[in-house]
Protein: ABC-type sugar transport system, permease component
Amino acid sequence: MTAEQHGTTGDDTTGVQTPEKGHRAVFRIPGTALIGVLMLFMCMFPFAATLPYLLPLLIVPIAVAVWIMRTRTVATRDGLEVRTMLGTRQLPWDALKGFSLTPKASVVAVLSDDTKVALPSVRTRHLPVLSLVSEGRVPDPSGLLSEPADEPEKNEDGTGAAGSDAEGATDARAGENPESDRTDDTVSEDRDAR
Structure:
């Protein structure tokens, strides 16, 4: 998956090109998959060259290569462009009702009329990217893009609230192992006694 800033808007007063507000994300199969297709072709070629009736088998690696290069989902400010082996479909953000997740972590777009459109190469980990590219029209279910929380309050000794949580975590682990019932001070005293 690649995400890149796309497009510029001209500024006539300074002559400097500034990036426009939107971004573009392309979700596709990595190009390195073509190495496997090339190897498949090289393995099939000797058999196809020897026996002429096996020559049509060379169509298989060629079709797989076209599928790898063609299949993708492109997300822009305007919507999604879903490219498959046989066609292209434009899905504006306003036409989307939401997303559906499959058991294999794939994402399916659900349109306003409840039809489902598979999004090639888009996985659940890509949902924050779709939210960013759509400029908030698609909510981020992971919360990665939400505002950062306020800093934790400081105690009198200068430690944050995380310091008190660390003590609680030690206490929570204490019941798991009888050796862990001793505090750090007891361990230090044992070392000094040796």
The mean pLDDT is 75.
